[in-house]
Amino acid sequence: MSTLDAKPVKAKILNTKLLTIAAVILLVLALLFVATPLLSTTTGFAGRTGSNQAFNSPGFSGQGSGIFRLGFLNGVTGTIVYAVALLLSLAAAVGMFMTKRWGKVLGIIMAIIYGLLALVNLLPTLLISFMGIRNPMNLILGIVQLSLTIAVIVLASIPGKKPAAPITPAVPPTVPA
């Protein structure tokens, strides 16, 4: 092989079935993150009264639960951030359904972002539960979100099998008569 010959390109084959499953899980994960403020209850000392104070203020600001407790994700800003994340996840899922490499990469990136947000949600819940304040709904949501994140990353990372080369039957040599 001379230096002018083109090197063979190893094309990685995407796993169609697992990418489809990962795309569905990514959509469930994105919708779960959008619905987290509605599903979880308030945390902290103010949440022990039984009333859900997250809905008393416009745009889930104030004592909201989940990621909306962060300052930059209050109100309209949080809604915009989650809408953009949902649209990016939808685009990633469409790309994964069509077995495109960009869909796989975008899906993994979105899963990593959702995983980091799940850790931000889960760590305060775990720390508060050690102090004696229990909030099982936030704990369950955090664990489900983390497990779905790991599932998307693992399923999207598994490569597909190479197609078997067609086997040509060996033809015995013919003897001229």
Describe what this molecule looks like in 3D.
The radius of gyration is 24 Å and the shape is elongated. It has helices at 16-39, 75-97, 101-130, 136-157. Helices cover 56% and strands 0% of the residues. The longest helix is centred in the middle third of the chain and has 30 residues, at 101-130. It has a domain at 16-46 and 70-157. It has four helices and no strands. Helix 2 (75-97) crosses helix 3. It is an all-alpha fold.
Helical run tally: 4
Shape descriptor: elongated
* Ends apart, CA distance between termini: 41 Å
What is the helix/strand order? Answer: HHHH
Oligomeric composition of the shown chains: single chain
For the largest beta-sheet, the strand count, sense and barrel status come to: none
Helical residue percent band: 55-70%
Low-confidence stretches: 43-68
Give the strand content: under 5%
The radius of gyration is 24 Å
Give the beta-strand count.
0
Average pLDDT score:
76
| Coarse structural class | mainly alpha
Topology:
Blueprint: H1 16-39, H2 75-97, H3 101-130, H4 136-157
Summed up:
The chain is an all-alpha fold. 56% of the residues lie in helices and 0% in strands. The protein has a domain at 16-46 and 70-157.
